Structures are given as structure tokens and as C-alpha cells.
Amino acid sequence: MRLKNLSISSVIVMLIALVSTTAYTQVTLPRTPSPAATVVQTIGISTVTVKYSRPSVKGREIWGALVPYGWNVQGFGTGNSAPWRAGANENTVITFSHDAKVEGQPVPAGSYGLTFVINKDNTGEVILSKDTKSWGSFFYDPKQDLMRAKIQLRDVPQTELLTYDFINNTKTSSEMVLDWEKKQFPVKIEFDVDKIVMDNAAAELKGATGFNFQGFATAANYSLQNKVNLEQGLKWANQAVTMNNSFNTLSIKSNILKEMGNTEESTKIMNDAIAIATENELNNYGYQLLNNGDKDKAIEVLLLNAQRHPKSANTWDSLGEAYATKGDKKNAIINFKKSLSMNPPAPVKANSEKFLHQLGAL
Fold first, then answer.
1. What backbone torsions phi and psi does residue 189 show, to the nearest 5 degrees?
2. Radius of gyration of the chain (CA)
3. Which of 12, 80, 155, 239 could form a disulfide with 216 if both were Cys (CB 3.0 to 4.6 A apart)?
4. Cα of 39 vs its chain's centroid, Å
5. Which of 69, 83, 74 is CA-nearest to residue 145?
6. In terms of C-beta density within 10 A (0-12 exposed, 13-18 middle, 19 or more buried), how is residue 34 classed?
7. Can you give the residue ranges of every domain in the chain?
8. Each residue's pLDDT tens digit, 209-222
9. How far apart are CA 136 and CA 256, in angstroms?
10. Architecture of domain 193-275 in CATH?
């Protein structure tokens, strides 16, 4: 009924629109023969993500044939030379969550098209392009290059399905590798991890994390453990102490002051921490001193703990271990036997007996 009120041209337009919509509306099916894949590597608190498609070798000659050497891949109908797309189908895309360095060159956080060039002598180039939308590298435009860097390829065992991976990981870097057939394309990626962590902590402490002392304490402890921006670390430690005056917060502050060369203030703060420490906190601190080679101070702390908690078999066992570590056999035996006389828990009993056997006293 309503069609009678429409012109013939209007009906034709509607039919064309319907046909066009139908042509491009399809169900999602598995992609073959080059399935899509994603690999993610965390470096510090930063991530590197590579999205790509994985062609197979299938007995084909790859290098110098399917993938020509040098800049010999002619763009699809564009007439330009282009690098290898480093995968199949759409652009291989690499994403950095924070500013990074790729083969020593600065790369801002963001997503980039990833391509490679391979030469007969196993040299090559890695190229990051600001264009992430083109199909493969057929429409490669050198004006869109963010960076190019020389790389040295490696010979590796046969890899049938093109694979990206991350190897040789360190605190601040990783080596992204593309493995296919018997070639490996390595690319070193680095982040300024300490700066990123400290900047991120400063930002997070302005939000919900800043309403509890643990956030300030963990940020200050990171500064201490990594010896980075100790001035800021001390500010965070002071805030943690203000919010929660405890052995943990005071000891972090003390150690930052010590690292900054303020030993007098550090000692004072540590004494304040020891004065309010629990049995477990003093015990752990004693072992920390032992591990750092400060045996006399460890004995002093563990003796204080035993005096404060004389009914704890573990305090006497720990004190015995400190004496044994120092080489004071007599006092070690006295304290281990005292521990055993108190019907200690099984782990404590086993430790005391082990040392007494070693000392020839059991």
C-alpha cells in the first residue's frame, strides 16, 4: 500500500541500499589460511602488543622468492617499492603503552605499522610507520615512517607458522623476535622503567590509592630498592609514617635516609621502629641484617626479641642461628637447646636440631 505513494526512483534507491547492506553483512568465520594472533609482553609496568596474521611456509621458498630481498615488493597497483608486511593480511601493528626505545631510537607511546626489509647477507631493517590502517604494506608511504633501524638477522630452526615472541628479557628491555622458516628478525625494545614506575606512582597517589598508607609505603620502598629519586621517596615515606606510624613505614624511611647519607637521622628513626616492632617484624629484621652481613647488629636485634618474647621458642632458635652464623658455637648451642626445651613447633624444632647436629651437640 505505502509503495504506491513512492516514486519509482525512490524505490530503486531503497532496493540498491538493501542489496548493498546484504552484500556486506556476513557471519564471522575462522580466518584461513593465515589466522590472526596477538602477543603481549610486559616490561616493568609497560606493555608491548603485536597484532598480526600467521602464514605458514607450506614447503614454499620464502626468502628471496615469496618475500623478495630488499625493497622489491611492488605496492598493489601503486607502483611503489615497499618493505615486507611482517605477517599476512592487514598491517602488522605494534603498540607501546609508554614511550619506548626501539633499537636505540625514541618511539612515543602509541600504535604503529610494523614492517621489515631482509637482504641476502642476513642484514635487514625494521620500520615503524604511523600508518596502521593499510592492507599489509601494499600502500606503504615512506613519508609515514616514524623510524627505521638496521638489524642483523639470525638463522634458527624451522618455524612453520610465522611467530612473534619476546626473548632475552631484563628489568628494562626485551627482544621482540619474528621467527619464520629458518630466519629470526630481532628487535630490541627498552623502557625507562624506573621513571615510568615513579611517574605512575605519583599519578596513582593522587587518586584512591592516596587514601591509604600502603600506597605511599610501596612507592617509597620502590624508590629505596631501586635507588631512584630518593628525595621523592622520602616524601612518600614521610606521608606513610604520618598515616601509619609502624615498624614497616619507619624502617623504609630510615633506610632511605641511610641511602641519602643521613646516618644519624636514619639510626634514630630505626630505633623508633625497633621500639614498636612486633615479634615477627624484629625476627625478620634480624635475618635481614644477617643476610646483609651485619652479624653483630643481627645478634643485638634477635637478643632483644628473645628478651621481649621469652616464651617463644622461635626467638631463641633465631638467636641461635645468628650466633652460629657468626661462628660463636657455645652461644649457638645454648640457644638452640633452650628453643628445644620449650616444645617448639615442628619447623622450629627441625631447624634447631639441624644446627645442633652440624655443631656436633646432638
1. -125, 135
2. 32
3. 239
4. 14
5. 83
6. middle
7. 36-191, 193-275, 277-362
8. 999 999 999 999 99
9. 52
10. Alpha Horseshoe (1.25)
